[in-house]
Amino acid sequence: MTEVIHTAPDEALTDQPAYREPGRFIDSADPAIRARAQGIVEGAADDREKAIRLFYHVRDGWRYDPFNFRLTPEHHMASTVLAADHGYCITKAVLLSALARSIGIPSAIGLADVTNHLTSEKLTRQMGGSTLFVDHGFSLLHVDGRWVKAAPAFNIELCQRFGVAPTEFDGRADAILQEFDAKGRRHMEYLRQHGAWSDLPFDKVERDFHKAYAGSDMIRQSGDRPASEKAGAAGDDPFGTR
What is the pLDDT averaged over residues 234-238? Predict the structure, then answer.
């Protein structure tokens, strides 16, 4: 398998085979991944239109649910996410990157630390007392000769329910988490960029999560609880606005 490449935040991504070939997590050669991507982009005029279609397919086709996840390698593989109906920022980014790569659009995974200025006490407790979201994941797609960021985390229904403007993607500009909500209140703020990887650095994510959320039962139990067992209820607010 191709060696995973890490590019520092202040360095430019270069055109290398690792961004085009299947990885352990960005398993773009999986037949189901390839078939899904082909079906979504059929008839698209160019790579930009293909990237846009894939972005919205992932953004709105998988419910954002940070409570119901498992911190295991298997559950962070794109083919596993494809078979689910939900995900969180990292798994949805991995899926988007795999779908894009399967049709010839080079892709990578970016990680950054963000803070949610509207976090509720309930969500803070779930995160072990922290308001910091470490290793927020997003895709990087190479479209029309340049790399653009694409964060497909928050599905449209969720945004409408909690009054957050959805992230839009035109294939030209970066599409990242919203700095303000629909009422103009400060929402998400990017604090630290960690760079980009040609495949998900799962060991880093696992280590960082356990360190940042040492007091969180949700994280401590995420590696071995049954997939059907949720840390949160259906009415939980993943934005932390209530």
Answer: 53
Instruction: List, in order, residues 6 or more apart from 234 with CB less than 8 Å away.
Output: none
How much is the pTM? 0.89
Q: Which two tokens stand for residue 2?
A: 């191709």
Neighbours of 77 (CB within 10 A): 24
Rounded alpha-carbon distances, angstroms, from residue 241 to 45, 118, 133: 40, 5, 15
Place of tokens 């990887």: 197
How far, CA to CA in Å, does 225 sit from each of 60, 148, 200, 219? 27, 36, 22, 10
Residues facing residue 45 across a β-bridge: none
Tokens representing 186?
């400060």
Q: How far apart are CA 136 and CA 151, in angstroms?
A: 9
Residue 201 main-chain phi, psi, to 5 deg: -85, 75
